[in-house]
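lol ok so funny story. i was supposed to be doing the assay writeup but got distracted and ended up predicting the structure for this chain instead. priorities right. anyway since i did it might as well share w the group, maybe its usefull for someone
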Amino acid sequence: MERRYISRAPEFAMTVRKAGADHELRLSGELDIASAGCVRRALAHIGGRRVVMDVSGLRFIDAAGLSAIALAAQGRDGSRRVLSLRGARGLVRRVIELGELGHLLDDAAA
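and the output, tada:
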């Protein structure tokens, strides 16, 4: 099952796919103050213990985007989720690492 979330920010797109009890979010464009709410809303509606965020399509991320990622580690009921980030490279990877979320990266440095 796949669902595409629409953001008011035209520079951002997100697709959520459910695979068993897990979810994969594919993010592209700019994850910033204008689009972070879209990610938070999607995460509020999905369950599951494991969430994989494919960030390979992101060109930019700011503090609001980092906050949305950090919140992704919390489940709907306040429990902890297993969260991993895939495909981070360049500036996006550097911001994730500087934001002290590098432990969520599950791929080799790009």
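The first strand starts at residue 2 and ends at 5. The chain has one domain: 2-104.
back to the writeup now i swear
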